[in-house]
């Protein structure tokens, strides 16, 4: 049951190409079997009149207004990526079906393992949608925005510290990042990044060492990095490098697009696109009454939606296994703004591992997914989705229902019952606050089921703030350096196409909203991209070991895996969400002027 998603890693770059998942395209789940094609093959001829005069209408399913941050370096919600996707999200590289970076995009990448350099060469005709040239400084400035001490970006992690001079810049001790050089000047077309070490993940799109988008330096240079996210250049009049340019933003509600005449690649065929937010309670009716051509390719669609829409005439369901997962997070510490690192609090309410494990064993996630998943989602067993088939630990058990074990864990850890509820080992009352986002009626039922299951083992768990929280308010609370409103929460990640989790669960990762830190976790994540990791079998072993370790610690615990899918109207031609389709939006056309 996917919740509103946070974007993790450089997922923005991936989403621009709607590269949602790697193979396979069908999988068995505990809730049944579903199989989706990754493309809708429309054999009708495209209509020039329809492309010129009618509007492609896209629904973005969400129960909150989108935040409106168009800049992929600063945005953190997948919903923002969805509504600004036709602009290309300023992605640098194209990738193949396995997400390996290939030539042909806005820029090409050349890695030199011996010299420890990455050379990025921008194509000569690369321009922004206002006609400005894309320059070497535009590549470098993305790193400045990410690592600036006053930034609002949440993308920084220790992996970026492998760039020479990055640590000094991030600490505010240097005004520039010394590891960037410009063979033909800042206004030229080439950047060389100098690293202290190279990683095998650098070959893949969305890796956590080389950022995959550009910043329009000349357009935004006079705005301080601290205020960039609220600037008109980002909120009202952003520019893009993709197939479409933005014509209009209705704050939190919709974006309107037309072809970008400066786009380097395949020219856009459809002259008008509108992407509108539609609540989860209305999205099925909106599709059934033919108000939209499709839902956002990476939008959150539930099993209950699939049940309503799977047999709809004039629409086909297209999708792939999701590059992401739902999870449970526990608040076990805080973020130290001086050191810019997460810190575990040994005396925090949720610090006891047995308490966290017990809460997970109390949940009946298999039953929940069977009831509401309709084959589209199923209980997750680890913090890495099965689309990463090489690294996924399929033998991991995760947290199946085991009430007996949950009670034993609590008893042994000293959480004794005093009347109806258990108390802390020191005898003080224990009230646990559960953070849940507003969603569908099925999600509301799911949250109530969680509370009932926790009550069964004697834990007094209540909804944080007394009710479900609006998405932006939910994340605003979790993103505070220190907060006590939420002890445990249900959320979801939209992942990058390279599975290294440093930017989600690293010691210095702002995304590590539960603030879990341990020497073992840091060691394992470093080993994923260490020198030995160039041997694939070693890297696979480390990933599997990390998944087992995180399951044991249960500071973050797996919730569900799912498919990402969309109903696509039969007047749409060229709809294809396979990872190698790097020009999703300009490959679209229409075969009739009205939605069929």
Automatic annotation (TrEMBL):
GO molecular function, one term: peptide transmembrane transporter activity
Highest rank taxon of the organism: Bacteria
Keywords assigned: Signal, Transport
GO biological process, one term: peptide transport
SUPFAM superfamilies cross-referenced by the UniProt entry: Periplasmic binding protein-like II
Region (Disordered): 50-71
Signal peptide: 1-21
GO cellular component, one term: periplasmic space
Transmembrane spans: none
Domain Solute-binding protein family: 110-505
InterPro entries, per database record: Peptide/Ni-bd, SBP_5, SBP_5_dom
Pfam families named in the record: SBP_bac_5
Family, similarity comment: Belongs to the bacterial solute-binding protein 5 family.
Name of the featured protein: ABC-type dipeptide/oligopeptide/nickel transport system, periplasmic component
Native species: Oenococcus oeni (strain ATCC BAA-331 / PSU-1)
